[in-house]
């Protein structure tokens, strides 16, 4: 079982002040936004609560109250920065070590291959290192998205 002590997301949260842009593109008291790692799809975002929560039902009313706003704000920023046609919002938290609730907010471009739309978008995660978006590129996209988001 993943606890707060063994959780990747919580370990990152403890380093909050030292995280690169790609790991804290935006945040408030309850939520943090990072670029997904291990993906070849640019601007794949992860929205996660800042405390250890493993089911959506455990979110507090305060966290829940901000969730929809974050999903829509991030989607607007993704439209502006990437030119995507729509965004996908998905939450499973089933991968080993990643039980901490996290919402994938994924830009789907107008020319995205038809056979990799919908759930097949996850074929862009866990790709070989030479295909992954580089940390430098993630930081650049993160800065553009942060700028597009503007102040709360
Ligand atoms: Zn956690």
**For this structure, what is the CATH class?**
Alpha Beta
Q: What is the fourth-level CATH superfamily?
A: HIT-like
User: What's the β-strand tally?
Assistant: 5
Shape: globular
List the helices and strands and how they pair.
Blueprint: H1 8-14, E1 26-27, E2 31-35, E3 45-49, H2 61-82, E4 86-90, E5 103-108, H3 135-149
Antiparallel strand pairs: 1-2, 2-3, 3-5, 4-5
Structure described in brief:
The protein contains 3 helices and 5 strands; from the N terminus they run H-E-E-E-H-E-E-H.
Folded structure, characterized:
The longest helix has 22 residues, at 61-82. This protein has helices at residues 8-14, 61-82, 135-149, and strands at 26-27, 31-35, 45-49, 86-90, 103-108. With 152 residues, the protein is an alpha+beta fold. The protein is built from 3 helices and 5 strands, in the order αβββαββα. It starts with 7 loop residues before the first helix and ends with a helix. It has a single domain (8-149), classed as 2-Layer Sandwich (HIT family, subunit A). Helix 2 (61-82) packs across helix 3 (135-149). Strands 1-2-3-5-4 form a 5-stranded antiparallel beta sheet. The radius of gyration is 15 Å and the shape is globular. The model has no long low-confidence stretch (mean pLDDT 95). Zinc ion binds at residues 4, 7, 9-10, 52, 100.
């Amino acid at each position: 079982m993943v606890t707060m002590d063994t959780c990747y997301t919580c370990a990152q949260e403890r380093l909050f002040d030292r995280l690169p842009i790609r790991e804290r593109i935006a945040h408030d008291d309850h939520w943090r936004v990072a670029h997904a790692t291990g993906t070849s799809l640019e601007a794949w975002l992860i929205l996660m609560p800042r405390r250890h929560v493993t089911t959506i039902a455990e979110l507090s009313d305060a966290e829940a109250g901000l969730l929809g706003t974050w999903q829509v704000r991030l989607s607007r920023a993704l439209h502006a920065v990437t030119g995507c046609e729509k965004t996908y919002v998905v939450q499973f938290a089933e991968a080993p070590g990643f039980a901490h609730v996290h919402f994938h907010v994924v830009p789907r471009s107008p020319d995205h291959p038809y056979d990799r739309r919908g759930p097949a978008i996850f074929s862009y995660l866990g790709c070989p290192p030479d295909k992954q978006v580089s940390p430098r590129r993630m930081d650049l996209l993160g800065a553009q998205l942060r700028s597009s988001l503007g102040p709360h």
